[in-house]
Amino acid sequence: MRLTTRTNLAMRTLMFCAVNSDRIVRKHEVAAICNSSENHLAQVVNTLSQKGFIDTQRGRAGGMRLNRPTNQIGVGAVLRAFETGMPFAECHDPATNTCPLIGICRFREVLDRALEAFYGSMDEITLADLVDGNVPLAHILALGEQRLSSACQ
């Protein structure tokens, strides 16, 4: 299994917002530190906003911030928001499936159970679990004064 680039970038963006929760962060800041293009990030930010994970503000003083506390943002929910539109295997998409085994193959059932186990495991993790007390992460993602003070510690 491999997560899409968008899903990975969504998690980086949420962690970035969490580490810098005392301010509105800008897309170019996230893109620079998280190694992404602003165009690609814009699509991710749009989805994060539509799904209610972040609030966005337009304009000169605009940017983004988390929409709720980190302990209320489940990793499983984020992954589902970005991954569920894409079928895991050909047999999961009736519109494009060409597999002649679709009616008799047990592999699809095994995949379904494995995916549910994966998402169930991710449902147990929150954004808070990823960022709280993670000093090395904060050192990389913190902006401004936070970056300077963590570098001195």
Features:
single chain, 153 residues, mainly alpha, Arc Repressor Mutant, subunit A, two-stranded antiparallel ribbon, 8 helices, 2 strands, 54% helix, disordered C terminus
Portion of residues within helices: 40-55%
Low-confidence stretches: 146-153
Task: Compute the number of structural domains.
Answer: 1
Overall average pLDDT: 87
- Helices and strands, in N-to-C order? HHHEEHHHHH
Q: Can you tell me the CATH class?
A: Mainly Alpha
Total of helices: 8
Class inferred from helices and paired strands: mainly alpha
The CATH homologous superfamily corresponds to Winged helix-like DNA-binding domain superfamily/Winged helix DNA-binding domain
Q: Strand count, sense and closure of the main sheet?
A: 2 strands, antiparallel
- What portion of the residues fall into strands of 2 or more residues? 5-15%
Alpha-carbon Rg, integer: 18 Å
What is the first-to-last residue Cα distance?
38 Å
CATH topology description: Arc Repressor Mutant, subunit A
Write the layout of secondary structure elements.
Layout: H1 5-19, H2 27-33, H3 38-50, E1 54-57, E2 63-66, H4 75-83, H5 107-123, H6 127-131, H7 135-141, H8 144-152
Antiparallel strand pairs: 1-2
